[in-house]
Amino acid sequence: MANPLLTQPLVFEPIFMERVWGGRRLESLYGKRLPSAAPIGESWEIVDRPEAQSVVHEGPLRGLTLHELWCKHRAEIFGNVPDSPRFPILCKLLDAQENLSLQVHPPRAIAKKLGGESKSELWYVASAAPKARLYAGVKKGTTRDSFLKSVGQGKVERHLHALEIKTGDAMFLPSGRMHALGAGSVLVEIQENSDTTYRIYDWDRTKKGRAARQMHIAEAMQCIDFNDAEPGLLRPKGEPLVRHESFEIDKWDLRKDREIAETGRFAIAVCLTGKIECGDRQFKAADFFLVPAQQPGRLVRPLEAETSLLKVTLPSA
User: Fold this and answer.
1) Residues 190-249: tens digit of each pLDDT
2) Of the chain's two ends, which shows fewer C-beta atoms within 10 Å, N or C?
3) C-beta neighbour count of 119 within 10 angstroms
């Protein structure tokens, strides 16, 4: 018998984060109601962390946190998934009005030693300005010693591998891959549930009168994979974008009604373009929703031409 509380997708209240490099395009492009007039760099759309909790926005489960759902209603909402103390995926939107800091996230073994958390992530370019770029990995020939010397000289950029990006591009960033997002892009970010970041370089923001931000050179040098030379953007063959131990992500061009996942498995969907209907609710670009494992109506229906989405789930237990 269907659970009467799980007849519609779950939608959560976004948590907006001020960032020095942020802007206001989540409002101008997608109609997000941003607080104040501050630069908003991130919208945490689905998160289960001690310092940040997604809360169900409406419906019978309104007011419950994602952590409460994970701990008390795991089977009904998430199905048969690997055990974890918290929901292991974090979903965000990023608005880079300026360059993000050059940074790296620690691989699992190093994270444990440094007291942090590993973090691999997918960046999907939802909107890109002309000639927008991101930085990932190092240029061929870069060594640990040559890079560290350039850090001391303030000449890090000579070692960075830059890729020009456009709307619809995607990049996988395994932990250990040094990276930065250049100005002019809005991204969907799907990542491990972690907030450990080691900054290496901040584009001389202090020369523009900005406050200095903490760098983590010693930690970063333990994490950067210097064999990761000039990686490329994802070139998927078919719908799968990423298969990782912490998440699985597909890109769908939605031309007809489809089941988002088989009964007994949850899925998170992110509308990229067009408009989607699921469980008698409609979703537009930059809307995130979670289809519970026991929701009976599991069809996603395109309501406009050129409708697309990202489907995010966990590997089966």
Assistant:
1) 999 999 999 999 998 877 778 888 999 999 999 999 999 999 999 999 999 999 999 999
2) N
3) 24
Residue 104 tokens read as 């790296």
Dihedral angle computed from the Cα positions of residues 188, 192, 197 and 198, in that order, rounded to the nearest 10 degrees: -120
**DSSP one-letter string for 54-107:** -BB-SSTTTT-BHHHHHHHSHHHHHBS----SS--EEEEEEEESSPPPEEE---
pTM: 0.96
Cβ atoms of 250 and 241 closer than 8 Å: yes
Whose tokens are 């994490």? That residue is 223
**Structure tokens, 180:** 């930065």
Q: Which residue has the tokens 């019978």?
A: 60
Q: Do 274 and 254 touch, CB atoms closer than 8 A? A: yes
From the candidates 133, 177, 199, 298, give the one annotated as an active-site residue.
199
